[in-house]
Amino acid sequence: MDIGGFYDADSRRRDSPEVSFGDGWRRHGDPHATYRMSWVAETGELYTVREPHHGGLLASYLDQLRIDQPDLDELTVEVLAVFPTQQAVEDTLSGWRKKMEHTDSLEWVRRRLEAGSPS
Q1: How many CB atoms lie within 10 A of CB 49?
Q2: In this structure, what are the phi and psi dihedrals at residue 3, rounded to the nearest 5 degrees?
Q3: CA distance readout (Å), 23 to 9, 93, 99, 109
Q4: Domains: count for the chain
Q5: 80: Cβ–Cβ under 8 A, 6 or more apart, which residues?
Q6: CB atoms within 10 A of CB 40
Q7: Is residue 4 classed as helix, strand or coil in its secondary structure?
């Protein structure tokens, strides 16, 4: 679903504080996108947003400068897990900053989620 649909699907998401877990996540086989990951306090959802970069790595850099931004309907969301507390997310993803910019860092997240068994 796109980012607008994500927030529209549950009104608690719009007003809830969110905790960022970085915006440089990568997925093998998807070289023209980066992912940002956040936790929604009100719902407990840990989610990613796929941010396409039509021009490859240079576009990823331009994205950091807020140049040539994708349309909102291009920002797709995946809920990865639900955690009861921010501390539970932080415990499960301990060391995430060092892993985020690796080639297939989202796979590292998925392995941590499987091992941590979030509720």
Answers
A1: 19
A2: -60, -35
A3: 23, 14, 12, 13
A4: 1
A5: 37, 46, 47, 48, 109, 110, 113
A6: 22
A7: helix
At 105, the amino acid letter reads S
The residues facing 51 across adjacent strands are 34
Q: What is the pLDDT of residue 65?
A: 61
User: Domain range spanning residue 44?
Assistant: 3-116
Query: In this prediction, what percent of the chain has a pLDDT beyond 70?
Result: 81
Strands (E), the chain: 18-20, 33-40, 45-52, 76-82
Output the CA angle 17-48-114, nearest 5 degrees.
105
State the amino acid at position 12 in one-letter form: R
Write down the residue that tokens 């980012």 correspond to.
3
CA distance 82 to 104: 22
Tens-place pLDDT, residues 55-81: 555 555 555 665 556 666 779 999 999
Amino acid at 21: F
Whole-angstrom distance, CA of residue 81 vs CA of residue 89? 9
CA-to-CA dists, residue 116 to 52, 81, 82, 111, angstroms:
29, 10, 12, 8
